[in-house]
Amino acid sequence: MFSKVLIANRGEIAARIIRTCKRLGITTAAVYSEADQDAPYVREADESYLIGKPRVNESYLNIDKVVKAAKDSGAEAIHPGYGLLSENAGFAKRVKEEGLTFVGPSSEVIAKMGDKIAARNVMKQAGVPVVPGTMKAVENVEEAIEIAEEMGYPVMVKAAAGGGGIGMQAVSSSDELTKAFEGNQKRAKTFFGDGKMFIEKQIVNPRHIEIQVLADHHGHALHLFERECSIQRRHQKVIEEAPSPFLSEKTRQKMGESALQAVRTLGYTNAGTIEFLVDEKENYYFLEMNTRLQVEHPITEEITGIDLVEQQLRVAAGEVLSFKQKDLIIEGHAIEARIYAEDSNTFYPSPGQLSRLSLPHGDGIRHELAVDGTSIVSPYYDPMIAKLVVHAPSREAAIEQLTTALHHYEIEGIKSNIMMLKRIVTNDQFLKGNTTTSFIQDYYLPAISQQ
């Protein structure tokens, strides 16, 4: 096992990794920008290194500065967390070239899965169902319209290098497609440096269900069941739960095996996630692969008792997985609510100075915090305040626990999405488990429009 790890990230995920490292006796080194100098994770790390100004391209995305901090600290490995450099193949390659260990898969696999067109082709090769669509980049709007009309509207216009809902849009006509193609191509070039686009048939009102996978360097691979992440705004997840209230045991097993077939085809190692769209008949289609830890990983930890960060570190250090698929069972139900500094009506970020943060406590309640009661939620980064995770013997008990906890959350000084979360978890359709990717559009927005 490593003696020192540098964490190339910030906020709640940096604090989360630090917590596991401390339990394992691993010294931690953090990096921070000028905007984060007073952040809780900086204080919690054993060492910390200033790497630049607030903007991410001058700090957290600056590979030279991050690598220099790792070398200066004497770290043996770098954990990238999620977001930022976590799926940057060039960064993973550089880390290896510097004689350090990247806590994640190989740079070659990251590059392959980072291109959604290449990923679709790999999954098709592996026998994993993919959404009907183009298997190569679409060159221009005219070609896109021709493909969409042959495929039949509605379709999804997607950036090949996209992520987080950026460069992705549903369209129902050629006029909409023209605007979406050109607009998303520009956004993709800006955010990802790659304007390649492709077209997929839109699966109407699907569920977004993902499979957590884990594989070592000795040929062992397993899955840790599924997470349902269907409740989203702007194609970004808000509430996740495990297991899914929708899947039958038969489909759960089939999806798990499909995910493992993808892992074997890729020669994948470390933790990752295969994301699927699932229709009302439980047909499932590959959406994308995240070659990193997910924001929602705590709910998998809660229902399996497995610390995923610990397993990431052990795999990266060359250890053999200490458990097998048959050892894993689902225990109870877990739900995660993402608490953001944002306006619940517009979903726009609402950064600023916190004046009070009071958290509920009790059995089965877990917090992953990005801030404390005196923090500034910076306009430079994702406006997450915390993740509230609950675990109970049943879904009904978990919802009751989450609802109570949300009512005891106190945030002052800035706007938050607490009220939105309360409305969602008390909605009749959520209580019934009728959660598709259009949930907020169908049930939340109409409710607040009537206020």
Could you explain the architecture of this structure?
By secondary structure, the protein is an alpha+beta fold. The chain folds into three domains: 4-103, Rossmann fold, CATH 3.40.50; 132-201, Dna Ligase, domain 1; 207-449, ATP-grasp fold, B domain (D-amino Acid Aminotransferase, Chain A, domain 1, 2-Layer Sandwich). It is built from 15 helices and 20 strands. It has helices spanning 11-24, 40-44, 63-73, 89-97, 107-114, 116-125, 141-151, 174-192, 249-266, 297-304, 308-316, 395-407, 418-425, 428-432, 439-449, and strands spanning 4-7, 27-33, 47-52, 77-79, 101-102, 155-163, 166-171, 197-201, 207-215, 221-233, 236-242, 270-278, 284-290, 333-340, 352-353, 356-358, 365-369, 376-377, 384-392, 410-412. The strands form five sheets. Strands 13-12-9-10-11-14-19-17 form an eight-stranded antiparallel β-sheet, with helices on both faces. A five-stranded parallel β-sheet has the order 3-2-1-4-5. Helix 4 (89-97) packs antiparallel against helix 5 and helix 7 crosses helix 8. The protein starts with a strand and ends with a helix. The relative contact order is 0.11.
